[in-house]
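Structure in, sequence out. Go:
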């Protein structure tokens, strides 16, 4: 008779009291997050990941814009992925929830910020930031980035780096709110391009679009000659993020 074991039974209980044992257990937790998230999200393509400030309240112009964009994307057949929390994340989930495709929330456990808004059709909870960040990229056919703080800038920098270095496939990276982003873009052109830190063509990885309808149109235009399904080469590349 074949004998099976649960993961805890395969680990020496005494080893868990050591630093190495705790690290080994943490690695298993990370592996579990990747496996669970991949299983839950494998059928959501095509999808668009949306980012922006968690501190924006309903009624704010950015909140209403995010909700409108998400609803248009959802009605156009895109699942919408957000961080699952408040602010722009809530607006994105709310808009998608009112549309025809799933609203997806990738929730992170934080001690100081409420997570898990009520507008998620599919929810995945994460303890580890980097596992969550990989899922934003892995399942996205486009990034839509509204004004936000450090977390938003982190996601923008992450996807720009992955696309620039060829670790991820090229996807539309759309910034919403030209006035908000203008200073950063000017600094990038002046300092990063001007001092040779990036190529001038790297600035073409991003585009600023204000109108929600134009954002949906731009994403469709990008894929009109190739389709949303990643190629075999792109799928292989995404496994090495």
């Amino acid at each position: 008779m074949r004998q099976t074991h649960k993961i805890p039974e395969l680990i020496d209980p005494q080893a868990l009291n050591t630093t190495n044992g705790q690290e080994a257990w943490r690695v298993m937790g990370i592996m579990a997050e990747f496996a669970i998230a991949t299983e839950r999200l494998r059928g959501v393509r095509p999808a668009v990941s949306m980012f922006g400030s968690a501190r924006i309240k309903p009624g704010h112009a950015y909140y209403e814009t995010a909700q409108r964009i998400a609803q248009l994307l959802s009605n156009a057949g895109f699942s919408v992925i957000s961080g699952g929390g408040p602010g722009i994340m809530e607006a994105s989930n709310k808009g998608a929830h009112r549309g025809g495709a799933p609203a997806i929330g990738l929730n992170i456990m934080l001690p100081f910020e409420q997570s898990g808004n009520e507008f998620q059709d599919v929810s995945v909870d994460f303890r580890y930031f980097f596992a969550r960040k990989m899922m934003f990229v892995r399942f996205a056919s486009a990034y839509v980035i509204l004004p936000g703080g450090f977390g938003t800038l982190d996601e923008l920098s992450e996807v720009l780096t992955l696309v620039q270095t060829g670790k991820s496939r090229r996807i539309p990276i759309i910034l919403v709110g030209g006035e908000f982003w203008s200073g950063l873009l000017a600094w990038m052109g002046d300092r990063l391009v001007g001092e040779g830190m990036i190529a001038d063509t790297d600035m073409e990885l991003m585009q600023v679009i204000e109108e929600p309808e134009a954002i949906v149109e731009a994403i469709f235009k990008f894929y009109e000659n190739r389709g949303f399904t990643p190629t075999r080469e792109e799928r292989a590349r995404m496994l090495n993020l």
